[in-house]
Write a structure and sequence with these properties.
heterodimer, A: Folate-binding fold, four-stranded antiparallel β-sheet, 1 helix, 10% helix, B: mainly beta, Gyrase A, domain 2, Alpha-Beta Plaits, 14% helix, globular
């Protein structure tokens, strides 16, 4: 079980959170032409890195906010969490 | 319209669990709180309204994980720019709708969609620990938190220390399951349902 530090509520149990996938994916700009390939890549293709990874998590049973988590996918160690408008460096 | 409380069919008065040879003061007390006005205040993302200027029933909107209260009304922080107000003053929402502009805030009456269970007694923390992953000891009076209890999303409001008293809010549709979870957890300590 992970302990995740929500940027709004502090340390909470993983039971309160939902995993939201890769946090580095950027949505293609609105109202611009995009090839089917690029759209397919945005919607479906994800890397499965070994090591440090920035993910999205949702504090679904808490403050209901989305935020970023930098986690090691091997050790599950969490290094940093940040609000959606903040950068993790 | 007839008011039917969410726990109307299962909350029965009496003593339950391991209550024999214990004085009533040592038993947990479980009660249902109903007939309150409950509404949610959500400030829109693009609004620049300064919330420190707002008073709801003469109370400030509380900051993260805090509540504010007077004899009629309690306000709980639910998330950023999101508060839950419950009050015995049933006209409060009408007043607040005049004060809070529709351009900046959404005010939603959810009086009929919540169940409220109040727990009182020295062993309240033990009951919470059985189903809720919160670090209970880090919460003080005047705090509140959203969490889960046996998988059911709840809001916990820490009301008083002496006697130890908390309120657990859940969705009405989960009310009976939540009540069973909580009363099951109370059985080993013995409890009085009021």
């Amino acid at each position: 079980m992970l302990n995740i530090k929500c940027p709004y509520c502090g340390d909470r149990s993983q039971k309160e959170f939902a995993y939201g996938g890769d946090g580095t994916i950027i949505r293609p700009e609105l109202n611009k032409d995009i090839s089917d390939e690029k759209w397919d890549e945005f919607v479906y293709l994800r890397k499965s890195p070994r090591g440090k990874h920035i993910e999205l998590w949702h504090h679904i049973a808490g403050c209901r906010q989305w935020f970023k988590v930098q986690r090691d996918t091997v050790t599950h160690e969490i290094f940093k969490t940040a609000k959606m408008n903040e950068e993790i460096k | 319209m007839t008011h039917i409380s969410p726990l109307n069919f299962i909350h029965k008065n009496g003593k339950f669990g391991d209550y024999k040879e214990k004085s009533e003061n040592d038993l947990l007390k479980v009660s249902e709180i109903n007939k309150l006005l409950i509404f949610q205040i959500a400030k829109f993302k693009n609004s620049k309204f300064d919330i420190s200027k707002i008073k709801v029933d003469n109370l400030n909107l509380p900051s993260s994980l805090k509540s504010s209260s007077n004899s009629n009304t309690r306000i709980l922080w639910l998330g950023p720019d999101n508060w839950l107000v419950f009050s015995s003053n049933l006209d409060l929402i009408t007043k607040e709708k005049k004060q809070l502009s529709e351009i900046d805030f959404a005010i939603t009456d959810i009086s009929h969609s919540r169940t409220i269970i109040e727990l009182e007694g020295d062993l309240v923390d033990e009951v919470l620990k059985k189903g809720c992953p919160l670090d209970i000891n880090s919460f003080k009076i005047g705090d509140c938190a959203n969490s889960v209890y046996n998988g059911i999303t709840v809001t916990v409001d820490f009301i008083s220390e002496d006697p130890k008293k908390i309120r657990i809010f859940g969705l009405r549709s989960f009310g009976e399951s939540l009540y069973h979870s909580i009363t099951d957890a109370c059985l080993e300590f013995g409890f009085v349902a009021k």
